[in-house]
Amino acid sequence: MSFETIINVTTAGVFFGTKHAARVMIPACTGSIIAIASTCGILGGFGTHAYVSSKHAVVGLAKNVAAELGQFQIRMNCISPHVVPTAMAEKLLNGDQVSRVYYNMKGKDLQEQDVAEAALFLASDESKEDLLAQISMDQSGNKHPMSALYGLQQEQGSRSNVLGSSFSMNGCQIFAAVVGDWDMLLCILSIFSYIEHFRLEGKVALITGAARGLGESIARMFAKHGAKVVIADILDDLGQSVFEDIGLEVASFIHCDVWIESDTENAVNAIVDKHGKLDIMFNNVGILDPPKPSIIDNDASDFERVIKVNLIGVFFGTKHAARVMIPTCTGSIIAITSACGIVGGLGTHAYTSSKHAVVGLAKNVAAELGQFQIRMNCISPYLLLTLMPKEHLNDDQISRVYHNMKGKSLQKQDVAEAALFLASDESRYVSGQNLAVD
Question: Measured between alpha carbons, how far is residue 25 from residues 59, 76, 165, 184, 394 in Å?
Fold first, then answer.
């Protein structure tokens, strides 16, 4: 194919599909537009000039569309798979070349099912706050240059040869621009047929800071989907109340101060003694320091306290989760970060530094533990109306935060559903990523 042909199909085709999907979604003030992209939409050196150019072009288109259509509660997101062994890929690569692609997650290859499950997440209401996200599915962690972009933040992916398909799921019209490969399309359609099931059946999860707020919502979500959940917190009375409300048969509580390593170690050991394993480690605890007008006014003690809880606490949780996950060669480790872990100027110096550090830790851990089929990812919510931000912002400041998705504000449920995706096997080929829920 000529350069012009590939651009016309891959880029202009996406534009036409997006344009006409938007035309019918705008009056309804709802919709999800999804693009299957590629790692070629993140960096160069992975494909032909035409293909890479077309993918990057759709990245820009998706960003612009998300900014424009947010006011109508219409989302646009991309999925960027690495090499999927479809008919199209097999025409270009031999078996040995394909096998060399998967050098980090030993024993696992990226399959159409993995991409389809990411598509399900972005198409569903679980991702309704992911206005502009790119799911990079390459399991490369930090061993690959692509990890520098940790594709789940506000970098958009792009598309392959496009065919448009319009269909209905739970009453919502969804437009999906998918690879020109019928196998992939049929796989995505089949995934949409089983949305409601116990997605964490048989799994055991440890959730820190789960006695209230976001952690509590995540614990309830995981239990709803079949997991045994262990609530770890320093708030004993609240923690006991939450686990009793969830149900004694599926939940339990353990006292744990995350920046005391022995507390975390003991919590993990207790879980393995009781359940025989740990499948999901959710690092949720975080604190803020008092905002100061200048770095000159910041106290060293405040900085050190925030780093100790927000970063070192995550390090301890990750370390001891890995200790028991490595022998079983499976596991999902997740850390709550923040939009402050993506850009500067949104929070205090201590808080922003700690959240950026957690993103770096997650990328490094993903690179190390991929060989054991253990994943680590981050979730970066924008302003979530929990007790912590309400202590620092008034109602007018909070209302100004939600200026793009008119009529919608970020809720704990939105973040819990993103957590469910990353905890479940639906994201088994997603690691070293930072999912921005904003």
Answer: 21, 12, 15, 25, 34
